[in-house]
Amino acid sequence: MIKKIILPILLGSSIASASEVVFYSTQANPLKEADAMRNDVLINFDGEVKFLPQEAGPFFSRIEAESRAGSVTLGVLGALHGQFPQIQDSLDSIDDVLGSVPEIKSNKTMSELGKLGSQNQKYIPWMQATYIMAANKKALPYLPAGADVNALTYDELAVWAANLKEATGDAKLGFPAGEKGLMHRFLQGYLYPSFTHSVVTDFRGDDAKAMWAWFRDLWQDVNPRSTAYSLMQEPLLTEEVWVAFDHTARLKDAFDQRPDDFIAFPAPSAKAGRGFMPVIAGLAIPAGTPDRAASVELIKYLSQPEVQVKTLKATGFYPIANVELPADLPANVRIAGKAISMQANAADALPSMLPVGLGDMSGQFSKAYKDTFQQIVLRNADIDQILDRQAMVLKTIMVSANAPCWAPDKPSDGVCPVN
Amino acid sequence: MNIKSYPYILIAPSILFLLAFFVYPFIEVFSQAFTTSNGEITLKNFDTIFNDFNFLPSLKNTLLLALVVVPVQLCMAIGMSLMISKMKKGRDTVLYIWTIPLGISDLAAGIIWLALLDQNGFLNSFLFSVGIIDGPESWLNYNNPVAIFAAIVFAEIWRATAILLVILVSGIGLIPKEYYEAAEIFGANAWVRLWKVTLPLLRPSLQTALILRTLLAFEVFAVVMILGGTNMPVLMGEAFNWAFSYRDAGAAAAYAVVILGLSVAFTLFYLKVLHVPKEAQI
């Protein structure tokens, strides 16, 4: 026990001994989750594994540096779908591994995403999550008349936010628009699809213009501290906000700490449908890894249904494998799980895929949306002008990445067009 | 071993250290700023950052911060060092206490000030408990750029005045007493002595202190990130974002070159304005 868990943590060393698989991950980075990964999830792996979670920036730098220097020490890489394209050139093709994890392979949509738009499998889907809404139960009496919280529209959300502000004197709706918040995913996977049935192609269409005007109006009733929020569970727990949108893993603490005070519900819908975006984390093997067979074993181990359930308990990310969830799950899974399935199975559900094929332009793709949001909503700039300008930026990104369209945009011949 | 080579041997480690960790990365960054990822020479990286929404605001914020923070700190540091130099007892204790903030990392300093000024922070609780406000007020938000700016200025002054202070204290210690005695004989009062004796003779120290502090002001990052976040872009923060969030090392390098250009310009300015001819040095 001491040798396997405590020593590596104490030493914090990243030099792998011969038989040890270094599992380098941007996920399960918070101390508590990392501990749970080591003590509950990886403990039964038949072999030595060192779990090293890391922030995204240094994560990329190290992989790039090792790959350029030609001395790779890492065994398995765990990261988000949106993060892999940036290190795509350093990844080994692992079509053979996909064949040996039938539980994962049977989920066709997701294992296809693992090709990152190329011919070969680049990562094996590991776990998934999505973004939902959460509300303090105190906010429920202020819902507009006739609105069903589980089938909300964006217009009803706006009325709700206005009601809350009028009743409490404070803006109680919050978004994660801070430095490390995931606001861009709300724009790409929720707002744009719901209003325009598009993410890229109709970036500056009339629907998009109306959407931004609407969103700017809504923002009057949004807590102004939103530009400092990264994880919405914090302002929910302090009750600075009562209604919030965020990643399920970033709402987890609120549900776990006060399960009786909070509810989860699907994201709202607008005229094009109820846009929502899955989040997928995957496992990859860096090209030139010291012990590929051991890395493959670790991926196979993490793909087992019972280990996927343990991972869910540790990180709040749901299994990719089709598993029956046991009854003894933590509160956040019980609360969020229901909302997730309602969101995915709603009659007007409009799944929006994660960006594919952007390579290392992924960061700038998200920046394009964040900048548009900042200029239009926060700095009150002219909508037409900003959308025209940002459409050019988006076009440049799509062309230099040579990326085709992904859902909900219609499939394209070649580069995804920006109208 | 030849005794003449001792000094060179003794400074060699620090020179090697600087070559490896300063000069080499500097050359790398410089060349990265002017090349594409394929190695062609280009100004595209500068084009990218100049056309970005955040470039002008970040340049403006950085310069404004330096222009507000540095003069205030300079006046405070001169005042504090004069007080210290007049102290007979407890001088070291006071100096230690005043330099405590220097020992705190700027990230930690930002967190301390956020804990004070935050919506649920100490300042709010205090104002609430004495009945000045009715509930927690959030000051540090994007509707309130002046408040964010003021908070950052406050935190920076608190954190980094001591850098100027320690340099000026040692500078004042170097001024010979005879000058003051002579000035007093001619009837100069304390104010005249400050302007005619202390400040002119302090010029070399002022120069060092100002260069050091201004360069650090251009590199302000962690405090701004904590207190201002995306609401208050600064050059260093943008360089960080381009490097790590947007994954464009060329653009980040271009930001670094802009910061370097500013630093060189201000250093030359101070060198010229506060120049002391060799024959006038003490």
Tell the overall outline of chain B.
globular
Mean pLDDT of chain A: 89
**CATH H-level name of chain B... which superfamily?**
MetI-like
Strand content of chain B: under 5%
Outline the biggest β-sheet of chain A: 9 strands, mixed
CATH topology of the largest domain in chain A: D-Maltodextrin-Binding Protein, domain 2
Assess the beta-strand content of chain A as a share of residues: 5-15%
- Element pattern of chain A in H and E: HEHEHEHHHEHEHHHEHEEEHHEHEHH
Mean pLDDT of chain B: 89
Shape of chain A: globular
State the secondary-structure class of chain A: alpha/beta
**Greatest chain-chain interface?**
A-B, 25 and 23 residues
How does CATH name the architecture of the largest domain in chain A?
A: 3-Layer(aba) Sandwich
Transmembrane segments (chain B): 7-27, 63-83, 95-116, 146-169, 210-229, 249-271
Keywords (chain B): Membrane, Transmembrane, Transmembrane helix, Transport
Organism (chain B): Marinomonas phaeophyticola
Family (chain B): Belongs to the binding-protein-dependent transport system permease family.
Description:
The complex is a heterodimer of chains A (419) and B (282). With 419 residues, chain A is of the alpha/beta class. Chain A has two domains: 180 residues, Periplasmic binding protein-like II (D-Maltodextrin-Binding Protein, domain 2); 199 residues, Periplasmic binding protein-like II (D-Maltodextrin-Binding Protein, domain 2). Helix content of chain A is 42%, strand content 13%. Chain A contains 16 helices and eleven strands. In chain A, strands 1, 2, 3, 4, 5, 6, 7, 9 and 10 form a nine-stranded mixed sheet that branches. In chain A, helix 2 links the parallel strand 1 and strand 2. In chain A, helix 8 packs across helix 15, helix 9 crosses helix 15 and helix 15 runs antiparallel to helix 16. The radius of gyration of chain A is 21 Å and the shape is globular. In chain A, 53% of the residues are buried. With 282 residues, chain B is mainly α. Chain B has one domain: MetI-like fold (Orthogonal Bundle), CATH 1.10.3720. Helices cover 72% and strands 0% of the residues of chain B. Chain B has 13 helices and no strands. In chain B, helix 2 packs across helix 13. The longest helix of chain B is centred in the first third of the chain and has 32 residues. Chain B is globular and about 65 Å long. Chain B starts with 5 loop residues before the first helix and ends in a 9-residue tail after the last helix. The model of chain B has no long low-confidence stretch (mean pLDDT 89). Classes of the chains: A alpha/beta (419), B mainly alpha (282). At the A-B interface, helix 3 and helix 15 of A face loops of B.
